Amino acid sequence: MTASYLSRRRLVAGPDEHPLGVGCRPIGGPATNEGRPVGWAHVADSSAVDALLHAHARGATVYDTSDVYGLGHSQRLLGRMLTQVPRTSVRITCTVGTYKGTGQHAYSSLNLFRQVEQTQENLGVKHLDVLVLAHDDFGPRDRYLEEARDTLRALCDSGDVTAIGMRVPGVLPASPATSDPSANCWGTQARYDFLFDQLNPRVLSTTASPLAPQAGHTIVGGAESVFSFARRRGAATMIHEPLLHGLLTGKYGPESPFSPGDIRSRYTPADLEIVDRGLEVLRNRFGRDPQALARLALHCCLRSCPDSIVLAGVSSAEQVDKNFEGLKAEVSDDDYALAERAYSTLYAELARHAASAPAVP
Fold it and tell me: Which residues does residue 172 pair with via DSSP β-bridges, in sequence order?
């Protein structure tokens, strides 16, 4: 790695982590949660473990999983990889809160303890580096917030968890002056300032890709970007879905089949057609190999978010090798400008399509 934006980045300590982390949703396979797809296509277990080991050999240090990825299967495969590498060479981040099982609430004390204990068992580890909360819903009037706060503190005090993280929207609108941040102003600056004071998260995780405007990390109109918020509150950041579930590689056309348990099944043929058409200008410049477009998208994310660890999903050793080899390739300023224009146009097309689509009952 030679470009300045490819330097090592901070998670829970100093700037010790490789900027390209590993997203473990794809290796979990198909899964649904509360009737919604949360998984991926089937991946052979041996191929998944091989991919994780290849990433480690390439220098990856951050591995991100969730209890909902394959409903534990992703964690167990990551656990098989962890038996073959030094634990101190890997940082594990795990998201909880999407899956609540039979509990009253995902953030009840019993559920949090249970999910952490089950995650540790699946992974075969004694501690998690970062436990990430999937959302900011702590029940009506934050009924479970105090309980969750005390439980999270206990998990950190016991050494089961090193640091707390939270998933946060990419843009945090300003709150009305009369709103109560402890009530229902979900997703606003005030809400997350309030939760930050309550929970003291050290890592913020957000969805981002080259399609979303990120340059400068500030949003006009009183809103604040998650990156600006993180700097203001002294938190590290992680980016997931930098390839928009693989769509930005150009591999998927309007007729691409996805199983009911694959999160990509939420994209309509019209969505896929717009993406396929919008990527044509990039194919004309960089070639039709999906890995070339993946390399471009990853470079764009790493460059526009120079403080964030970018999590790229993996499913095969070949994919891992090409992702990491791609970091060595030079991308000129002219190529970046071309890519930014293409991504901006595609973003606008998808936004217009979403606005014109009939509301889902």
Answer: 224
